[in-house]
Design brief:
The chain contains ten helices and six strands; from the N terminus they run H-H-E-H-H-E-H-E-H-E-H-E-E-H-H-H. The chain is α/β, with parallel strands linked by helices. The radius of gyration is 19 Å and the shape is globular. The protein starts with 12 loop residues before the first helix and ends in a 5-residue tail after the last helix.
Length: 217
């Protein structure tokens, strides 16, 4: 497997922190608000319903949720309304300036039901954000659970997700430690390394094809 890569020059902890105040002011978040972020299309597959259920179970916490993507929000807004958390949700269209979303957040959460990789998880890690994904996302194979991110084994398990969110909300030290380890891990996920791995694979395939092709004589 050749994993995807992330531009750690564009997505970095320094850049995220520098834009934090400006980005949070855009949504009028309070200092005590704990902001969750999910980016991507196919929100059902990304586990948005599980996130909404987890937020609904944590009414005592000052949670806010930013959801970014091209999906029609109406079906999910109906679910959020039924769960009593619609006022905590902020629905956004994709933006070329994606860093502003990471800058506003405290935690990236995407308990995907299916996802070949999950690039926003890697971008969030490069930004020094703690992340929660699921074992159904390809990126989970590159995460050390509990060390540089968290992996939800069952993407439908909103109670375990709520417990993880509470744990991270309650410990700035844990968020800092996980974020630092995430930045360290992502340094190896460069596009140069990705391109080199693809090049080596292509050479291997070409060599195998050459050996298996009968000679003209």
């Amino acid at each position: 497997m050749i994993p995807n890569a992330v531009d750690s020059g564009n997505f970095s902890r320094v850049r995220r922190v520098a834009r934090r105040s400006e980005s949070r002011a855009h949504w009028r978040f309070r200092g005590e608000d704990f902001v969750l972020l999910l980016i991507g299309n196919a929100w059902h597959a990304k586990g948005l319903v599980t996130v909404l259920e987890a937020v609904a179970g944590l009414r005592e916490l000052p949670l806010q949720l930013i959801i970014v993507g091209s999906d029609a929000p109406d079906p999910f807004q109906q679910i959020a309304r039924r769960l009593g958390v619609l006022d905590r949700c902020h629905w956004e269209k994709p933006d070329s300036d994606v860093l502003r979303f990471y800058a506003a957040a405290d935690l990236y959460v995407s308990p995907s039901r299916e996802d070949p990789f999950g690039l926003p998880v890697a971008e969030a890690m490069a930004c020094g954000l703690p992340v929660i994904t699921s074992g159904h996302a390809g990126v989970s194979e590159m995460i050390q659970d509990g060390l540089d991110g968290f992996i939800l084994r069952d993407p439908h398990d909103s109670q375990t997700l709520a417990a993880l969110i509470t744990r991270l909300f309650s410990s700035a030290e844990l968020r800092e430690r996980i974020g630092e380890a995430a930045v360290e891990a992502v340094q190896n996920w460069s596009w140069d390394r990705n391109a080199a791995a693809v090049w080596e694979l292509l050479k291997k395939v070409a060599s195998q094809k050459e050996r298996s092709t009968p000679s003209a004589g």
